[in-house]
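Input sequence (272 aa), recorded before submission:
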Amino acid sequence: MQIEGNLRMFDTELNQGKVEYTLPVHDILTPVDAISFNPLIGKTIQIEYKGYINSVLSGEKMKKAYGEGLTYKEFMESPMASPSIIRPELSRIHEGVALRDYDWEMKHHMQPHVVYISLTNGYKVGVTRDTNIPYRWIDQGAVKAVRLAEVPYRQLAGLIEVSLKSHIADKTHWQKMLKGIIENPMDIIEVRDEMASHVPGELKQYLTDNPEITQIEYPVLHYPEKVKSMKLDKVPLIEKELMGIKGQYLIFTDGSVLNVRSHAGYRVSIQT
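Predicted structure, token format:
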């Protein structure tokens, strides 16, 4: 099978604890196909970069993307790249104040959010919309996760996350995650309960005692001892045996990895 089009991040589904990966392919802005990637593990695939990128918002052709498939102007103006995406505590849409786009922020930020504890290489705290669970956990390569707090809008989730940053990580060590390294043996409920004790009094009303733990298993034949990230700008032709997928990364048998999400909008030919 061979198909040409523009990349988007993997679509994922959690089926009885196991992740199923589907790669959507667009013709600029129009979805044209989707490739089921789980059956390709253990096989050689070819990805050839055609030398340009189409913006995921406007379709504009460019040589360099900003953020995840945006032009520089879009990156500076689009709500998809708003400061409150990275720092939820900056959101003010609950006050009727939009940082970039009122309607977009009402739709995406004035919505129920979850503060969670997840285990990637170690434990971390994170924030996402309630409707993004479990997909956000899968995207970051978490092997288990549990809810800590449930809030009515984004800023509150950000304030809880900020209050915990001196007690727990808020970022994933991607190389260790891709090596399958787990550094913290503590039970996730114990970690959640400890983090709950550090949440300021005025925010404790949003804590949840939901005991459900989500376990996540990735389609990886075995984890590499060393990993090396590739960018299609520098390695325009990849022809390697696929060893697995974790988070939004393709893992090849030689330990090289490709972050599909960071290549949104790239025009490629894929042969399987």
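Checked by second reader. Helices lie at 72-77, 83-86, 102-108, 135-139, 154-164, 174-178, 188-198.
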